[in-house]
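Below is a filled-in request sheet from our internal design queue. Each sheet records the structural input a requester submitted and the sequence that came back. We keep these sheets so that new team members can see what a complete request looks like end to end.

REQUESTER: design group, bay 2
PRIORITY: normal
MODE: inverse folding
CHAIN LENGTH: 285
BACKBONE (tokenized):
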């Protein structure tokens, strides 16, 4: 369960980052703001999580990202998403309902903040081109990531309804009403003693990696090369254990005795340093 959830979380994160890149490739006419991965607080303490929100002079676009493998069936009665893989079948809440609810919430947010009502468009974006869609959604448009720029560019023909000042006002209102959802490490969520977790570079098959040279690590079981080994191990730390890491903790967890190597890794990974002298820790942005 723990390993499966960690893979799902990382796949979702990587999928959102990939879709963000596709959106940035689109030619968008006029002024616009793109807000990735936001959670807005609405009246009556309702919260709306949105993977990607594009605000332009002509429309608002809500993007729901689903980075999934295998075969997908978007069922309507009842509304759910069925995934078929070699491991079997799984049922998920319907992404169509999620994105339609988010669109309703954005319209409500605009009304509450006295911001001109813009047309809201919604898409479900699939980063994984190998995913097979056996049954498409009927209520929301489904696109693979590379189709997004063309879809967005088609919306350029819509009339302009607001100006730069309105866009800025809406973006600021959303930022003020954002809910900071703090991620709970999986070891804490599942009440797992961190001393029971494997340390070092771990292959996808679950076995330890062995360092061949400065750049290459191989699994000591399946002999496959582990891509981005140290970066992936560091990601495991934040996902499983806690939101900060010290040089000493990095050395112990990664099994590397060279302090400078750990420090360079933290810098390359883009971690932020905080604290002084012995209390220095690093965290993600």
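RETURNED SEQUENCE:
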């Amino acid at each position: 369960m723990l390993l499966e959830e960690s893979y799902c979380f990382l796949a979702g994160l990587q999928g959102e980052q990939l879709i963000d890149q596709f959106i940035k490739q689109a030619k968008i006419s006029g002024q616009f703001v793109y807000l990735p991965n936001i959670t807005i607080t609405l009246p009556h303490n309702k919260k709306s999580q949105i993977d990607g929100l594009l605000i332009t002079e002509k429309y608002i676009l809500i993007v729901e990202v689903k980075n999934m493998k295998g075969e997908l069936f978007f069922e309507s009665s009842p509304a759910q998403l069925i995934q078929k893989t070699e491991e079997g079948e799984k049922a998920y809440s319907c992404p169509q309902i999620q994105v339609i609810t988010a669109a309703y919430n954005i319209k409500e947010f605009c009304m509450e903040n006295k911001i001109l009502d813009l047309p809201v468009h919604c898409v479900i974006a699939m980063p994984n081109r190998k995913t097979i869609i056996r049954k498409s959604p009927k209520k929301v448009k489904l696109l693979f990531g590379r189709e997004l720029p063309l879809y967005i560019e088609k919306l350029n023909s819509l009339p302009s309804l607001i100006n730069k000042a309105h866009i800025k006002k809406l973006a600021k209102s959303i930022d003020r009403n954002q809910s900071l959802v703090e991620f709970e490490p999986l070891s804490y969520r599942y009440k797992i003693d961190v001393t029971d977790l494997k340390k070092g570079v771990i292959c996808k098959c679950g076995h330890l990696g062995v360092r061949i040279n400065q750049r290459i690590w191989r699994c000591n079981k399946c002999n496959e090369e582990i891509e981005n080994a140290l970066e992936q191990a560091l990601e495991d730390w934040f996902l499983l254990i806690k939101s900060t890491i010290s040089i000493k903790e990095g050395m112990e967890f990664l099994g590397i005795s060279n302090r400078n190597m750990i420090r360079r890794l933290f810098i390359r990974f883009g971690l932020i340093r905080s604290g002084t002298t012995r209390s220095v820790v690093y965290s993600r942005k």
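SHEET NOTES:
- Residues 83 and 170 are 37 Å apart (CA to CA).
- The chain has two domains: 24-176, 186-283.
FILED BY: M.R.
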